[in-house]
Specification:
By secondary structure, this protein is mainly alpha-helical. A hairpin with a 5-residue loop joins strand 2 and strand 3. Helix 1 runs antiparallel to helix 2 and helix 5 crosses helix 9. It is globular.
Length: about 300
């Protein structure tokens, strides 16, 4: 049997220019399905073209028994649908069995975010620490200021190159999902933090010499592009100091950015463009956040609430 899964992953990476992070997610989900189907059919010669909706429903039940959240199962099913669309377009299968399988209804949730007082507390603590002059603290302040100023995803932040940042014009170019580029304004306070970080970055490059990555903007002490895990660990550590026990992730700063803009009366379509959402329906979850906040204020303040 040809390695159709490998062909699909190559198609994603080379032809559709999907990010490595997304390709890895497809590989994980489809690899687990491939392993499951081998046991389900009990036949090493099973073929993708023979898979039916009942087999896929059994696989989803298997994922549920493993304790996967409905959102994760829906994401995995979406990967299977995309894979079969590729197989159909390549005339490798006659039908897409995943189209006949309904996605589990995911629980609606309101994303975690910081209120303005918490943001002020966080940034004040970061500024105090950064004054000690350590590169990692100066970088932490610059990253968090930029995340809050622009509503970036973690991958977008990590992927910023020095050439993408124009502090004179006060803007940054980022690459979002599907490698779509957008140019975002950078606030004045974030610009200050970035200029301070840039001086620290130059010192790291001078110390490391030629091996340093001169293209990447955010560099570790060793002169390499800061890793996803390093960025996540740094930011979640600081977020835990202002909202201990909430389990806020780097994405909370993106939620905070959107919520604060909408609270201040920003147009929903404009926020959609800033966030890089393909659909305004994705952005609307932040209006729900604002409504819930208003309800809470109402219940606390109105004498007959």
């Amino acid at each position: 049997m040809p390695d159709l899964l490998a062909d699909f992953l190559t198609h994603l990476a080379k032809e559709r220019d999907v990010s490595p992070h997304t390709v890895a997610a497809y590989e994980r989900d489809l690899g687990e399905l491939q392993e499951f189907l081998g046991g389900h059919y009990g036949d090493p010669a099973w073929q993708w073209g023979k898979v039916d909706r009942l087999a896929l429903r059994s696989w989803m039940a298997h994922l549920a028994r493993r304790g996967l959240a409905k959102r994760s199962i829906a994401r995995a099913l979406s990967a299977v649908r995309t894979f079969y669309r590729f197989l159909q377009a390549s005339d490798l299968v006659a039908a897409n069995p995943a189209r006949a399988v309904g996605s589990p209804k995911t629980e609606k949730y309101l994303p975690g975010y910081l209120d303005r007082r918490q943001v002020d507390t966080l940034l004040h603590a970061l500024q105090t620490r950064a004054q000690e002059g350590k590169h990692r603290d100066i970088m932490a302040l610059a990253m968090i200021e930029l995340l809050y100023s622009c509503g970036l995803r973690l991958g977008e932040l990590r992927g910023i190159n020095r050439a993408d940042l124009d502090l004179l014009a006060g803007q940054v170019k980022v690459r979002g999902k599907g490698r779509k580029e957008r140019i975002l304004p950078v606030g004045s306070l974030a610009q200050q933090a970035l200029r301070t970080y840039e001086r620290s970055r130059d010192l790291v490059i001078a110390k490391i010499g030629p091996p340093a990555d001169r293209q990447a903007f955010f560099l570790s002490d060793r002169g390499k592009r800061a890793s996803r895990s390093t960025i996540q660990k740094t930011i979640t550590g600081w977020l835990a100091q202002v909202d201990e026990g909430a389990g806020l992730s780097t994405h909370a700063l993106r939620h905070t950015f959107a919520t604060h803009l909408l609270d201040a009366g920003a147009d929903l379509r404009a926020v959609q463009e800033l966030l890089g959402h393909a659909s305004v329906s994705t952005t609307q979850i932040y209006t729900h956040t604002s409504v819930e906040r208003l309800k809470q204020v109402y219940r606390q303040a109105h004498p007959r609430a």
